[in-house]
Each structure stands twice: as structure tokens, then as C-alpha cells.
Specification:
Elements: H1 9-12, H2 16-34, H3 36-56, H4 71-82, E1 96-104, E2 109-119, E3 125-126, E4 130-137, E5 151-157, H5 164-186, E6 195-196, E7 200-204, E8 208-214, E9 220-222, H6 238-249, E10 254-257, E11 260-262, E12 265-267, E13 270-273, H7 285-295
Parallel strand pairs: 6-12
Antiparallel strand pairs: 1-2, 1-7, 2-4, 3-4, 4-5, 5-8, 7-8, 9-11, 10-13, 11-12
Helix pairs in contact: 2-3, 5-6
């Protein structure tokens, strides 16, 4: 018979950030004393209990909301929730408990938590080096597994790639750095703000490591490459002005290229650095920077 949780009014008086820190400290203590599998098992049991409790009782009417940075993103999120789930009948696999690690570009640190996912075994797309799998991520027990906000793409490198974990981590750091540049770019009151989807690491027992990001639904456009290519199919100022801005903003230390995505919601960039170090094998250093400016034409933005 499961033990009843201890009654502690003091915990109820703590703020959300304090509770998060306490939760992290408890998990770390479990990892040190009993290992990672025990910590994952503990989190899984807790999530299962919460899901069962939510199914047995109606919502209390107290809702937690996450404030976004602008009305534009609030409107976009509201519209996304109203759309039908394009993967409703696609991802029919069992639920797995994994470890999610997220990178913070400002502090250059990783944070970890547990996550419930449904990850297809067979990829739905293949690139030159990576495989893409459909992935469902449980956001809340009430929402369940269906809805636009539950659809993600999990990317992995080919099985014969010995440095796959390091390369995936570089991809996440790169996307986080590009997102930070986007925030600085938008602060210049540009005509059309840009953003990069959040990318995070997923470790699944028996499956390996993946870089996971939200699925972008719509017409995907590659505006530039990491070697100077600029598309002539769609003439737009914003993507190329953003790349030039990153070079100026970083005082020539970095530049974000390989700009692609749906509209101005971007993903999978490449960062070239002056030193040529960091950000994966696609970092071409000064040569990559030179190739960008060789084909770049400044525009009104």
C-alpha cells in the first residue's frame, strides 16, 4: 500500500523557483546515493501519481501561465493550440522516461530534468549526417499526448559516428547561441523579429542520445548555407540582415549562418567563429565568415 505523502505546510509556502531548487537537490541526492536509474524511477513514479490524480479530479481552476516576450508569440501559441494535431495517428509507440538537458547560452551551463516521451524507432527523414524521428513530449497530464505543442523532432547522428553525443551537444549550444543573438537583433526594433526554436538533449535508456526541438509546420525555406550560398528563390532582407548583425554584435568573433526555417521561426543554424573552435564540424572559422561576405549584399535593414 503506497505511503501517504508527509503534510508540510512550509512547502506550500515556497515559491515555484524555490520548489524547483528543492526538487533538483532531492534528485541530485538520490543520484549520488543510489544512482541515475533510481532517480529516473522516482521521477517516473511521481509523474504517474500526478497523472492518476489529475484523471480522478476536476481542475481546481488555478492555472499556471508562462508569460511570453510579446503579444505576437502569445497569439501564435493560441493559434497553434487550435490547430488539429497532424501527428495524432502517426506516433503510436509506448511511453518512455528520459533525461532532458537544456543549455543556457547566458550562463553556458546545462540543467537536467525528467521527461516523458513517445519516440518512433524508424526515422521519417534522413539528412547527410543525421536521422530525424517523430517524437511526442508530454507537457501536462490534462493536455495528454495530442495537440500542436506535443510534436517534436528528435535528431540523432548515424550509428557509426563515434562523437555523436558531443556533436549533438554542439548543435544545442549553437541553437541557444543563435537564439540569444535573435533576442539582441529584435531589440533593434527591426521590421520582422526572428526567433530560433529551443533545442535540448534527450537521453533514453536503450535508445541513446538525441537533440530534440519543436516540429515546425509550414513551408520550410533554407535562406543561406554555411558556405556562402544564398537562395534566389525567395528574396528576403531579414535572414541575411540577421547574419550580418551577429557578426557586428559579436565584434567579429562569431557569425550565424545556415539560416533556415518556417517564416521567421528558425532552426538548425551554423555558427562560425574567428578562432574556428567550437560549434561542431560545420564551423569553418574565418573562411566561413569570408564566404558569407563574398555573397552578401547589405539591404535596408
Amino acid at each position: 500500500m503506497p505511503r501517504a505523502p508527509p503534510q508540510s505546510p512550509a512547502l506550500e509556502q515556497l515559491g515555484l523557483e524555490e520548489l524547483h531548487d528543492l526538487h533538483s537537490a532531492v534528485l541530485l541526492a538520490v543520484v549520488r546515493a543510489h544512482g541515475v536509474p533510481a532517480a529516473i524511477s522516482l521521477v517516473g513514479a511521481s509523474l504517474q501519481s500526478l497523472a492518476s490524480a489529475a484523471a480522478l479530479q476536476k481542475p481546481s481552476g488555478v492555472a499556471l501561465s508562462i508569460a511570453s516576450t510579446s503579444d505576437r508569440w502569445r497569439d501564435a501559441a493560441r493559434a497553434a493550440r487550435e490547430l488539429p494535431d497532424p501527428w495524432r495517428n502517426e506516433v503510436q509507440v509506448s511511453t518512455a522516461l528520459g533525461v532532458r538537458r537544456r543549455y543556457d547560452a547566458a550562463s553556458r551551463t546545462w540543467t537536467a530534468d525528467a521527461v516523458l516521451v513517445r519516440l518512433e524507432r524508424d526515422p521519417f527523414a534522413r539528412g547527410g549526417m543525421r536521422l530525424c524521428h517523430r517524437c511526442k513530449v508530454l507537457q501536462s497530464a490534462q493536455q495528454g499526448w495530442h495537440g500542436a505543442g506535443t510534436n517534436f523532432v528528435a535528431k540523432e547522428y548515424a550509428a557509426n559516428e563515434p562523437d555523436s553525443v558531443a556533436l549533438l551537444e554542439a548543435d544545442c549550444r549553437m541553437q541557444g547561441q543563435a537564439k540569444a543573438f535573435a533576442m539582441a537583433f529584435n531589440a533593434q526594433r527591426v521590421p520582422k523579429p526572428v526567433d530560433f526554436v529551443q533545442c535540448w538533449m534527450l537521453a533514453l535508456p536503450g535508445r541513446g542520445h538525441f537533440a530534440v526541438e519543436p516540429f515546425l509546420s509550414g513551408d520550410f525555406t533554407k535562406y543561406s548555407s554555411n558556405s556562402g550560398y544564398v537562395t534566389d528563390e525567395i528574396i528576403r532582407y531579414t535572414p541575411h540582415a540577421f547574419s550580418h548583425f551577429t557578426f557586428e554584435y559579436s565584434r567579429g568573433r562569431e557569425i550565424v549562418v545556415d539560416v533556415q526555417g518556417v517564416g521567421d521561426m528558425l532552426t538548425d543554424p551554423q555558427v562560425h567563429t574567428r578562432s574556428g573552435e567550437g560549434f561542431g564540424r560545420g564551423n569553418m572559422g574565418l573562411r566561413g565568415m569570408a564566404l558569407f561576405f563574398a555573397s552578401h549584399e547589405c539591404n535596408p535593414i
